[in-house]
What we know:
Elements: E1 11-15, H1 20-31, E2 35-40, H2 43-53, E3 56-60, H3 68-80, E4 85-88, H4 103-125, E5 133-137, H5 150-170, E6 176-182, H6 197-202, H7 215-226, E7 237-240, H8 252-256
Parallel strand pairs: 1-2, 1-4, 2-3, 4-5, 5-6, 6-7
Helix pairs in contact: 1-7, 3-4, 4-5
Amino acid sequence: MTSAPSNQKPVVLVTGASSGIGDGIARRFAKGGFRVVAVARRKERLERLAEELGDTVAFTADVTAPKAADQAVEFAMKSFGRLDCLVNNAGAGKWAPVHETDDATVDEVVETSLKAPFRFARAALHVMKAGSSIISVGSVFGIIGGLNGGIYCAVKAGLIGLTQALAVQYGAKGIRSNLVAPGVIKTDMTKDYWDDPSFRRINQDMTPMDREGTIADVANAVYFLASEEGSFINGHTLTLDGGWSSTKYLSYGALIAKSVEA
């Protein structure tokens, strides 16, 4: 089988592509034959990624800037002439209870994790054709509230609402919208929590799987939703948490553990 000419290969735009889950998503799409528009603030990391992957261009931007979405989509069209998939991955991970959350934190999380995805979707819709898709990376905490989740949980729930609105509005035009909602994935943003006993009780001891979720798990799920194999999935939130949110599992160790004083 001969490969498709370069100008016929599909194009994906990934926000937050310079590290962690975004980097993994960009790599998975490149492996699957997509040309990649990698968007993030860290220029050097993006340029290294683009050089390593090939058929990849880097667009350095703060996704919260008012014109960032329009400029990134315009850059994609100038670079490759088409846009087949948008992956809204960039997000802010600020956690605090509502009574301890100031307006500056509210604004930061809303701007990064809801307003930017809205703007990128709006810009992409102007150039996307039938067969395209918009996929957002949300969180299981947009489905089930997390202790001290505050504005983070509220915004992730809003991202599910945006996904459903896009699905019903543009599905008839052949443009699908879906969301992947991971549990806590070990990245630079979360690694400091991993050995904390309280975190392990809430996360590992309540997950009925014998391993932790990985960046590759998220990247594969996002890629599947963009692929032909996922082409009849629209308006769906795919929970990726090993059963954490859908069961009342407790590990044997947690069940027999002595009570811990608060």
